[in-house]
Amino acid sequence: MVGMNLGRKRKSYNVLVVHGKANTTPTSMITFNERDMRYEPPRQDEPMVILVVTAEYKVERVLIDQGSSANILYWSNYKRLGLQPANLEACSGKLYGFAGEQVTIKGVIELETTFGERGHARTIPMLYTIIDVDASYNIIMGRPTLNKLGGVVSTLHLCIKYSVGQEVRRVWADHRVARRCYEDRLRIGS
């Protein structure tokens, strides 16, 4: 491009931008093996229940639900986090469950959410839908979370892996907490 006038340089550059290759960041291959098995193989099909940090609080009883199209933060936990109703962004409508049940949405809020511990942590902004129902979980994280995190779940290993550059990071489920949530859910449902 040496010797071209500025107008031609801009035009050439614009053509390159339009026809240029997509900017893709290479990521590490994510696989699971026996080293990822933190616990004995589960006797039952345990759900992925993890701990995250959001609104500067550690939040336990976070269910990873690959079938959910929304990230759910329950109203009772919203208040425990010290968040004010005025912080909610209006969102009219209903959330529909698997069996067709309807729940009114109180609003939505974006919160920084941290996955992992210490040097292996990753923080991303997550959009939560707030609903007011009884639940044994504090948060349900669905596909939007996994996609934004780039997370891959192995229910056999009770582990989520995600890439940060060339490094693979992990978050393990706590099968004891998962079992307590299941037992609590039976009490709530009865």
Automatic annotation (TrEMBL):
InterPro entries: Peptidase_aspartic_dom_sf
SUPFAM superfamilies the record matches: Acid proteases
Superkingdom per UniProt: Eukaryota
Gene3D superfamilies in the cross-refs: Acid Proteases
Protein known as: Peptidase A2 domain-containing protein
Classification of source organism: Eukaryota, Viridiplantae, Streptophyta, Embryophyta, Tracheophyta
